[in-house]
Design brief:
By secondary structure, the protein is α+β, with helices and mostly antiparallel strands. Strands 1, 2, 3, 4, 5, 6, 7 and 8 form an eight-stranded antiparallel beta sheet that branches. The longest helix is centred in the N-terminal third of the chain and has 9 residues. 27% of the residues are buried.
Length: 183
Amino acid sequence: MAEFFPALTAEHRAFVARQPVFFVATAAADARINLSPKGMDTFRVLNDATVAYLDVAGSGNETNAHLLADGRITIMFCAFDNPALIFRIYGRGRAVMPQDAEWGELAAHFTLLPGTRQIFVVAVGQVQTSCGWGVPHMAFERERATLNKYHAANPESARFAKYAVRTASIDGLPVRNPTVVPA
């Protein structure tokens, strides 16, 4: 039932564009596996071999730490409507910070949100589709406004001190931090 592809096709791109949520998984040796749900219209297909997503500061920065340590990342989308489908992107990722030279070019693909911390760029190694027949039907109601409201209501310096700047992952792995607030 599973089918593999070396890059994203036009059909894959159309499927991804319709999905309101995606999941990101990373791991590093001797560390927990991190699996995070994402939404808020933060995912972009840059080309058939490169994808990116905008990261908003929240509870931690595990993806950053794992990508520094290992680089592997899996992104999964699944259809909660018809036709059923699970879509995975396997690749190697890296964080691009607001102070990095390529920030401006990458940031132009997104609407920067309050609390924007970094953009994760993924070089696609392989794409997989599978049936998704075990995934329930669900309907998208709306995005949650809580995270945007929180960051909008807090001064930039306090936000970066509390959420954007972490010295280590929950397993003690180093993270790379933004040194400037994204404009």
